UniProtKB/TrEMBL annotation:
This is G8 domain-containing protein DDB_G0286311. Pfam families: CEMIP_beta-hel (PF24606), G8 (PF10162). The keyword Glycoprotein applies. PANTHER family: G8 DOMAIN-CONTAINING PROTEIN DDB_G0286311-RELATED, G8 DOMAIN-CONTAINING PROTEIN DDB_G0288475-RELATED. Belongs to the comF family. The keyword Glycoprotein applies. Residues 219-343 form the G8 domain. It comes from the Eukaryota. Keywords: Glycoprotein.
């Protein structure tokens, strides 16, 4: 290690860079004392640098303890070195205390009293110190790089401007024999993003504004106290509050968070976990912008038991924009959000060939739709798998799966099964208690032709919901996964919902997103015109998925390039002949009779734009 090397590393404000450099450097044998003194000084400076970085970035770590652990852990091989380590530097006075290495009175006891400043007496002791400090720095930098780095750097906004890329091998496989164009009449739109007509995008990152007040700063709050676990929270009037990775911890569950009409809650581009009973948005809830998407992992979990009186307060177990409020959420864009098989995937295969060059990521979940016979709760062939690798050749992609397929999925010239991406980096979800509790005896025998789910089961799912209600309210979501959302058989409590917004619907949209394991619908448009629902995947959904609309007066909605799959009906199972009668079958369990024949798309008026969608399962 040269002085130039050390100076270069000391200028790096990055734990991982320091660690990688030091872990590759090995102490040299004893040599000239002056040279070793310089080497030792540089090592100590690097330790001081690591501590300074962590201490100046609001780290929750006890850096003094970490340094002491670092010195102790790696000096156990030599009792003498262990004793020397105990007398080495204590944070924060590193430069002074480092001179506190002293001669041993014996092999088991150090002299007491003040420690005189003096250089190391010989090359042997210098070598030991160099070894000790190298090991200490390695451990400390490793802790920071792999663990503390997250806490220490949590308040530093991400510099990413697009979906984080990973190495993709191009031209990795032969494309001979693959289905190049689908047999269906419509094809997928490849353009990754478009702005709705009349919508002005923000060209700055909201979380970089200078007038933001930190959530974790007590002076931000009228009470002078940072909100605590279990409390309802109301932002001060006329304020813009920044929620960062330093603001909340996973164990805290707030009550209902209220954003007044004159205030705004802005999320930083950090890994954030926010737990609450709900968010009432009368002002603005902002997660990124069209031109400044958030690429960190953000999880918002909505908590709450099913109340006796339904529907509950819109903000209860929901994110509700009311009285002119705005919800604006913009995550990473993965495109296309779904594709079709370019070749049949047989049972036992662990690779899929897709018709598009997707930018999906290893670690994400995908859906492979069933292509056989039937799609219901008691019998279907849909499969969810984790991506482990993505390769591309020409216009195609090859996806490697974490587990082999259980069933065959057809991808011939006649038709091809769909493959949809479920994962997103921003997740809005209901808590684990959202799951239905009436799933026992989930199959009942009603017919000589087979078995069907019981009509009085699967009715208690009570997940989260999001909505914009009333004229002037807006809900914009893209790059979002809505998971365990929707409240079974409860009107107006859906994963995504525009409710009586009127002619202001052109400001609201749902794009590039997924609705996964929903207890009631995917997206609903009610009393609102000119809304956009596009490039969204809905899977494992109770009731009609894309529901356009509740009253039948809605107009000019664009429903484009969406995939709906594995949709579950409510009530007594219907046959095709039931639907030719004047009155559909219904019962007291249904708030919407049409859900007895739930389908991926439910559209009641002709004046809409319906483009390039795909339906699989339900009454499709």
């Amino acid at each position: 290690m040269t002085k130039l090397d050390a100076i270069s590393i000391l200028n790096e404000a990055d734990f991982r860079s320091i660690f990688i450099f030091v872990i590759q450097w090995k102490p040299t044998p004893p040599r000239h004392v002056a040279t070793m003194n310089e080497e030792l000084r540089l090592l100590k400076e690097m330790v001081a640098k690591v501590v300074k970085i962590a201490s100046s970035s609001d780290s929750k770590l006890d850096m003094k303890r970490e340094l002491e652990d670092a010195r102790g852990t790696y000096t156990l091989k030599s009792r003498r070195m262990k004793l020397l380590a105990k007398r080495a530097t204590a944070v924060p006075n590193i430069d002074d205390d480092l001179r506190c290495t002293r001669k041993l009175k014996s092999r088991t006891q150090l002299k007491k009293g003040p420690c005189p400043a003096r250089p190391a007496p010989d090359a042997t002791q210098n070598t030991r110190q160099i070894m000790m400090w190298t090991l200490a720095l390695q451990r400390l930098a490793l802790v920071c790089a792999l663990g503390a780095r997250v806490a220490a750097a949590a308040c530093v906004p991400s510099s990413a401007t697009s979906v984080p890329e990973y190495p993709v091998e191009e031209n990795a496989f032969a494309t001979d024999g693959l289905v190049e164009s689908p047999a269906e009449a419509v094809t997928l739109r490849i353009t990754p993003n478009e702005l709705p007509d009349g919508y002005d995008a923000s060209y700055a990152c909201p979380y970089e504004d200078e007038d933001l007040l930190a959530w974790e700063d007590a002076s931000t709050w009228t009470s002078g106290v940072v909100p605590a676990n279990g409390e309802d929270v109301e932002l001060p009037a006329n304020t813009r509050v920044l929620l960062s990775g330093c603001s909340v911890t996973e164990g805290i569950i707030f009550g209902i968070i209220t954003i007044p009409a004159s205030s705004e809650l802005v999320f930083a581009d950090h890994d954030i976990v926010l737990n609450a009973q709900g968010i009432r948005v009368q002002g603005k809830l902002t997660l990124g912008a069209e031109s400044c998407r958030l690429h960190s992992q953000i999880n918002i979990t909505l908590y709450g038991e099913k109340p006796a009186t339904l529907p509950a307060d819109p903000a209860y177990k929901g994110i509700a924009a009311i009285d002119g409020g705005t919800i604006s959420v913009h995550g990473s864009i993965f495109h296309p959000t779904w594709s079709r098989l370019a070749a049949t995937a047989a049972a036992g295969d662990s690779q899929l060939y897709l018709q598009h060059r997707v930018n999906w990521q290893p670690g994400q979940l995908l859906l492979v739709t069933g292509t056989e016979l039937k799609d219901s709760r008691d019998w279907h062939r849909n499969e969810v798998r984790t991506i482990t690798a993505v390769e591309r050749s020409g216009n195609f992609a090859r996806i490697t799966l974490s587990l082999p397929l259980e069933y065959t999925h057809f991808g011939g010239v006649e038709y091809q099964g769909e493959v949809g991406l479920l994962s997103r980096n921003i997740v809005i979800q209901g808590d684990e208690a959202s799951e239905p509790t009436d799933t026992e005896n989930d199959v009942c025998a009603y017919s000589q032709f087979g078995t069907y789910p019981c009509e009085d089961k699967w009715l208690t799912g009570y997940g989260g919901h999001t909505m914009a209600a009333g004229e002037g309210s807006t809900i914009q979501m893209e790059g979002v996964q809505l998971y365990r959302m929707g409240q079974t058989n409860v009107l107006a409590r859906y994963p995504w919902h525009v409710h009586l917004v009127g002619e202001g619907g052109h400001r609201s949209y749902l794009k590039h997103s997924s609705v996964y394991h929903s207890f009631f619908r995917c997206a609903s448009v009610h009393g609102t015109n000119s809304t956009l629902i596009q490039d969204t995947v809905g899977y494992d959904v109770i009731g009609h998925c894309f529901y356009i609309a509740e009253d039948g007066v809605e107009e000019n909605t664009t429903v484009a390039y969406n995939l709906g799959a594995h949709v579950h009906f409510l009530g007594f199972p219907q046959t095709s002949s039931n639907q030719y009668m004047d009155t559909l079958e219904s019962n007291e369990n249904l708030t919407q009779p049409a859900d007895v024949t739930a389908s991926p798309f439910y559209i009641t008026r002709a004046y809409h734009r319906i483009i390039g969608n795909a339906a699989s399962g339900g009454y499709a």
